[in-house]
Amino acid sequence: MRYLVLLFGLLAFAPPAAADAVKLGSLTVERSYARVSAARNGAAYLTIANDAAQPDRLVRVASPRADKVEMHTMTMDGDIMRMRQVPAIDLPANGRVEMRPGEGLHIMLIGLKGPLTAGEQFPLSLEFERSGKVEVTVAVEKPAPPKKP
Prior knowledge:
7% helix; mainly beta; globular; Immunoglobulin-like; 1 helix
């Protein structure tokens, strides 16, 4: 019994890890995570692998953790960050799409119902044009320390 208490105690202090991979037919959703955020908005990131011979599209996202959830792309135009909503995210046949911090695709969580705190997890619903719906668990993580030059 003492070992179980010790094990659970150590797990409580383990760093959060992105949630497990989720399969939906030929799609695999991996590394679903968000960063800590005290602002009214936040972002979630994940990777979607499509092992089918035909493309698919992510057409809708939702979560009870935010008032509104949108798919966005971000680019830098000189020193200006330009973010815009996209109606869908194309998933190429036998390909993968990776959403990560920085330029590129991400999922915006607009009107968060409280801050995103490290170690927290929340559901995110994904709807695909061909494959249907799936719910993934998003793990909230602290940002990685900056890389030293």
